[in-house]
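Late entry, evening session. Most of the bench is empty. Finally got around to the prediction I had been postponing all week. Sequence below, unchanged from the version circulated by S.P.
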Amino acid sequence: MPVDSDLLGSVGLRLESVIFSDGDYTLSRVDYRGRKLIAEISSASGTYQHRWPVAEGLILPVSARDLPEQRKLLLFDTGDTVFLCETIQEFGRMSVPQAVEITKMVIGVVSNLQAAGMICGYLGPEMFVSSASSVTMLAGRRGIPDSHFTAPEVHSSRPSDPRSDVAAVGTFFFRLIAGTDNRERQLHVWQELDPSVRIAIQDMSAPSPVNRPSSLKAVRSILDG
């Protein structure tokens, strides 16, 4: 879904740049009367949407409204932060140590969500913003896309197994290291990785939940090792 600057203009927003676009989901930087905000546009019917609990590490929308053609608009104030997908677009792939540190911060946020009763099932660089010392998650409508980065068992039902987040963390971690979602380029990066890193990613992303590490705590121990 292309970002419609006229549509944003109709609700008083000026489009500055597009951050991320995937099908009927877009993130953009916009200006509202001098205030810099993030505009998230999604389909009102789209993929399964999360019911966000109260949890540390989330950025909640400051405004929400319906748009024409069954679309939803959420506005976020993310302050002086940058989306991880923007970082990857600008600087390319991350080193393994850098990806480990970011992934451990993401695990902290997702663990808080699990403690509040929510399983994600999918985690993407477009869902997180980072500052010098922290990573926070956009409590938006990204939901669970039909993607090979989504835990396989989640495609047919709402996520209910904590190990679905283990798989989501595994694919997230690899996407940071690969710096691309292009399969051919990912394969090239994969072949260059240390065998211990490949094994860790394979274990986390195993097709069956029973073959994955049992919890995010176990994943963190692997990353710390």
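Two things to note before I forget:
The first helix runs from residue 5 to 10.
The mean pLDDT is 94.
Will write this up properly tomorrow.
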